[in-house]
Amino acid sequence: MIISTKPDKNYRRLVLVVDDEEVNRQMLGMILSEQYDVIYASNGREALKQVGLHKEMLSLILLDLLMPEMDGTEVLQTLHEDQDLKKIPIIILTSEKSAEIQSLQMGAADFLSKPYDMPEVILARVWHSIKMFEDANIIQATENDALTGLYTREFFFEYAHQYDQRHPELAMDAIVMNFNRFHLVNELYGRSFGDRVLSIIADGIRKVIGEIGSGIASRYDADTFFVYVAHRSNYGKFLDTVLEQLSKVMKAPAVRLRMGVYHDIYRSVSLLERFGRAQQACNSLRNQIGTGFAVYDMEMHEREVYSARLLEDFDTALAQKQFKVLYQPKYNIKGDSPRLCSAEALISWQHPEFGRVRPDAFIPLFEDNGLIQRLDRYVWKEAAEQIRVWKSVYGVTLPISVNVSRVDVYDPDITEFLVELVKENGIDPNDYLLEITESAYTDNSRQIVDVVKKLRSAGFKVEMDDFGSGYSSLNMLTALPIDALKLDMAFIRNISIDSRDLKMVELVLEIADFLGVPAIAEGVETEEQYELLKKAGCDVIQGYYFSRPITREEFGKLILKAKEDAHGMMRDAVEGKRMKR
Length: 581
What we know:
By secondary structure, the chain is α/β, with parallel strands linked by helices. It folds into 3 domains: 14-140, Response regulator (Rossmann fold, 3-Layer(aba) Sandwich); 153-296, Alpha-Beta Plaits (2-Layer Sandwich); 323-566, EAL domain (TIM Barrel), CATH 3.20.20.450. Helix 2 packs parallel to helix 3 and helix 8 packs antiparallel against helix 9 (236-246).
């Protein structure tokens, strides 16, 4: 069971009295102070300042209408226009009967007539207004999630807010728990099994809250849970309890629970910000396989501020061309000697303040915030223009591959945009290669297959990037329209003779051969890796063994050298024929 936090009379609520006459403030304060904590303001501007300082704890405002600087009507209107502040009940203090109806129409909960005579009536009206609005706020939220029985997000935040008001002395932790790639559970085992998994997670959370003794929980969205509990130093047992429940229906390798925790014993930021930081801690485990938890700390805070700056500077960076497109050469290694065959367009950010910003610092950020589509199109245009320039300068067409994010795939105009792009630059779509990650295929296989088929029918070649990092099944692979498999570089990093990684690489190469498509290995850095891959039958290689990503000018020199080497080989072949004669 979730511990109840329903309103009661056992804690002192905070009331703000706003009146320009000191005698009225003192009189109301004497009446209210037996049951409530009371703060004061002598005019409208001071009232708004007090509301801003105490909005998280404020239960009621007693507001005089006739005041200097800013009258009560203006204060009432200002509060009513704010979605959060309009929830605070307001009792109007006035001696003018004509103002009562207008005040009620503007959102006031009740009114008290001057002069004040019966303390019992004042206390009764105050208590009635507070109870009415507390109950209304709770009732307005749909209380329970139909599947798990936990609170819905609206009800959860309303209760958490009231919990803070009633227990300001308690240190609380915000927790976000997520089942990573939960859609795969539904796809592999069916939606009814997926619903059962979510219900079991909820049972585990309820069990933990029962053991702790207080707290509330919510199913925030499809596969994410928010939990608000008393502070503790270690959450390993929390996670273990939920995993123990899940073990009844799932084996450990299939469980991918992530948990983020934010400690804020002083409640220095709002509830939404606390759970936002817990969410960030949870997201920091996004690329982790299996289960684990992370606690939001100063390092994460600094990354959060840094990320906010990058997002803020995006438009300027795009307009000023701070983003630089670099090109990493790909070499065909099937013959006697490696041959330059294509390139991958990669992005770099030269920030005026931070210097070079690594792609892994901004690309996931832009993917999460919807900016990646604009950045991708910037790269696509630069790459298409570069194919045209190299063809004009060197008389050769060198294919370039560009990355297509999962966000791009959902763009209904992607095919038309790319067709128009290659047409504008006078290049063949066959020379414009599109790399789509394996994880994008598994996220929504039906839609992406349709998109890829449309792109291929327009003449483009599509490579599955990072193959082996996702969860593709062999059955799914045979149905996917692809022109090349690009091995996840994690396989390449540790390959050696008779190693498991090499066995995995050989397996992927066999799959590529079965599908009748070339295999590309990236991240190749050593001669040993090169030799093992060549011997295993890999077709194309890129990585620091041959070259780091370089500028278009540096790449032009590679093209020139490749042309000269090709001419030299042709001359040698001709001379060899003459010698035989």
